Amino acid sequence: MECLSHNIFTSATLTLERFIPSLSFASQVQVRASATGMTMSVKAVFFDLDDTLVLTHAADKVAHRAVSRLLATRLPELDHQAVVDSFVLHFVSEPWDPHHQIDVTEWRSQLWNRALVCQKVEDMDLARDLQNCFDSERLLAFQWASGVEVLVKKLQAQDIRVGIITNGHPKIQRAKLKACRAEDLFNVILVGGEEPKEKPHKEIFLKACLLAGCHPEEAIMVGDNLKTDIQGGLNAKFLATVWVDVHLQGHANRGPKPHHIVQNIVQLYEVLRQYGVTM
Ligand SMILES: [Mg+2]
Asked: pTM for the full model?
């Protein structure tokens, strides 16, 4: 597993371990905590949702393939991939109405319509069918990544609160959270679109701590987005931030520096061990 070397305790650890090499790791953790003036115990772990707990990009691909199949039955002569590609371009640029005047499902139907128009097809009913197909197939595929449920239950068994802090449109995010039955598993769930400030503003992170009954310096933030998840955890002065490099891109100074880097949720066990959490 790859972990960045700039852990906040690194310098204190190096100095102390030179003098107290015989202490157990747990004892050294306590000493390090005293040396840095911080509390080491982890009381809460917060996760981003998309491409952290659930591989959203994979669910998107499943939905895109389903839309292609639907198009193939309705308009066999059409370049189906071109329609999907065009939709994705529009979707990435404006996933919902920036002025919040148009319902998000209708907005996305209009994006499909624009993609169809690019192929010289004008059929708003078909566009709505494509959006319904995209939504239903994506939600069916929207399930926890491997190891998530076990990890969360093990954390809770250690009396550590577990939460989700996700940005995005409330209607879309709530549908995803329902699809994977998040409320059955997590203690705290916050959707950025429902809060006064989204990630990376510290306010939403501090509210999560309040709901979990912990201080920021007792919380760890885990997410795949450097600008929102990692920067937010840093803004709120969390104990640690963990970047999930889900696309295996490497950090390469591309943004805010996390305390740790993992490639998937399962690798989090080793990071947590460094904070005295053994499961
Ligand atoms: Mg994400």
From this structure: 0.84
